[in-house]
Design a protein that fits this description.
The chain is mainly α. Helices cover 77% and strands 2% of the residues.
């Protein structure tokens, strides 16, 4: 159970070590950050293995037990997302070893990267609302600086917009936490769930729910709270774009929403329909806005808004099948979109541009980048037999099973729209005829290896769904679904583990 603490301590230790040695030992910042991310990923796999057998792990901080004391909790939901997050983080850190050479003061980049990873992991293991807020802010503030890392005018503008919108989101969340504390006199999630179940005050909970939907909706970039995302994700360095789009918006936004509204408040019909409405708006608006993009990173950014809508739709439907589709799509999108943003960095290096109209023949000039980009794009589009196809199909069938036929048609239609704008944008860039001056190139292994691993995960990810659909017990994805469908039973599980 003490390994849970290492998920935060290891990247934080790397973040403090990097400035101390970064200016003195050449190459040490990259080694420290990559090793920190690697060991964090290893610990997440060990913890996930323990959760499969023990269902829930609780690490008590100090001698006071919850709800009075602070504790770190990992159940099947947080374990599944931890494995996803830390895998992507390690591969993004490894990719950075090559990519970040174009910038000066690389030690600052790696220190901020490690701080962001510690904050994201902290959100996933927090069982206290205030600590969740603190870790959320740690991850977000590091993200603001990383978006601006190139210090170009466009990057500084994007970071400023990201910081302003993030600050507004933080105010909403902090106010909601304050009202909750005045109501329940505790911020422990298990304690809050038990208190709310016994002392329901609908008026206050509705107000707090609105604050949280606005705050975490901004963090998740759900429409209409999405305006900051295309700027931030397109201007950040490629590995940071992969972290922001691949894991950050899902953990700081979607995971926090799911944890609070399923396990603390209990999902109500009103919140369910709000999530469904925001989801449909995000799916459609993100897809339409992506269609007209000429910058490859802005295309991927708007696509993230659309795909996050699928996850919110599954959560809003709230049936076991829909939640399974939502969590599975969270994994698939994390892998595929992280890969696409890493691809964008390599494509920009190969072609010297991010403008889609000026790219051609990437798959012939650098096959590793080209083919991995094709795999990721097809998975995002929902092409069989890739993992993205199965998560979308599950969500569509869940809509039909719940009697929401129009929502099923909307989800299917947006998937067709996704295929259309990816085909329109990437087909010429990948397969277009290259001019005679375009020589074949090869990316360094530090860039190629993460892209190949993520492509393999996008191809093999469909295997995760096989035991889940058979309701095999004690598997991580099935357990993650059970955590959310169990609702306020989360409180019983946490107190029982203590």
């Amino acid at each position: 159970m003490q390994l849970i603490l290492y998920l935060i301590v290891v990247p934080l230790a790397a973040a403090f070590l990097i400035p101390a040695i970064g200016k003195r030992v050449k190459g040490s910042p990259a080694v420290a950050a990559i090793c920190g991310a690697f060991f964090t990923a290893v610990f997440s796999y060990i913890i996930a293995g323990s959760v499969v057998t023990q269902k829930i792990l609780v690490c008590k901080m100090g001698t006071w037990p919850p709800p009075a004391g602070i504790s770190l909790v990992v159940d099947s939901l947080s374990a599944f997302i931890l494995v996803t997050v830390d895998t992507v983080a390690f591969l993004a850190a490894l990719y950075s070893g090559h990519y970040i050479k174009k910038y000066t003061d690389d030690w600052k980049f790696y220190a901020l990267f490690s701080i962001m990873l510690a904050g994201i992991n902290g959100v996933l293991v927090s069982s206290d609302m205030f600590n969740l807020y603190v870790f959320l802010e740690i991850a977000a503030i590091a993200g603001y600086f990383l978006v601006a890392f190139s210090v170009e005018a466009a990057a500084l503008e994007a970071a400023f917009k990201y910081a302003v919108m993030g600050a507004i989101a933080s105010v909403f969340i902090f106010l909601g936490i304050g009202f909750l504390y005045s109501y329940a006199s505790t911020l422990n999630m298990a304690g809050l769930a038990s208190f709310i179940a016994a002392n329901n005050r609908p008026g206050l909970l509705v107000f707090v729910s609105v604050l949280f939907l606005a705050g975490f909706g901004l963090k998740a970039a759900l429409v209409p709270f999405h305006a900051w995302l295309p700027y931030a994700h397109s201007q950040a360095p490629a590995p940071i774009s992969a972290m922001l789009s691949g894991v950050s918006i899902k953990v700081l936004g979607i995971y926090a929403l799911a944890r609070i509204f399923f396990n603390v408040f209990g999902l109500t019909p009103a919140v369910s329909w709000i999530l469904i409405t925001l989801a449909v708006l995000s799916m459609i608006a993100g897809g339409i806005l992506a269609f007209g993009q000429t910058d490859i990173k802005r295309l991927f950014a708007y696509s993230s808004i659309s795909q996050i809508g699928y996850i919110a739709l599954g959560l809003g439907i709230g049936t076991p099948l829909a939640i399974l589709g939502a969590i599975f799509h969270l994994f698939n999108h994390s892998i595929s979109k992280s890969l696409l943003f890493l691809n964008s960095g390599s494509i920009e290096e190969i072609t010297g541009t991010r403008a889609l109209g000026r790219m051609s023949g990437v798959i012939y000039r650098e096959p590793v980048t080209g083919y991995t980009n094709l795999v990721a794009a097809l998975s995002i589009c929902g092409m069989p037999p890739l993992a993205g196809f199965w998560s979308k199909v599950i969500i569509i069938f869940a809509c039909m099973q719940a009697g929401h036929t129009m929502l099923a048609f909307a989800a299917a239609g947006v998937s067709v729209l996704t295929l259309a704008y990816y085909f329109k944008a990437l087909s010429p860039a990948l397969f277009g005829k290259s001019d005679g001056s375009s020589a074949r190139v090869r990316v360094e292994w530090q860039a190629a290896l993460p892209m190949v691993i993520l492509a393999i995960l996008a191809l093999a990810g469909a295997l995760l769904i096989i035991p889940s659909t058979a309701n095999t017990p004690n598997l991580l994805l099935s357990g993650a679904v059970s955590v959310l469908t169990g609702g306020r039973n989360y409180a019983i599980a946490v107190m029982g583990a203590i």
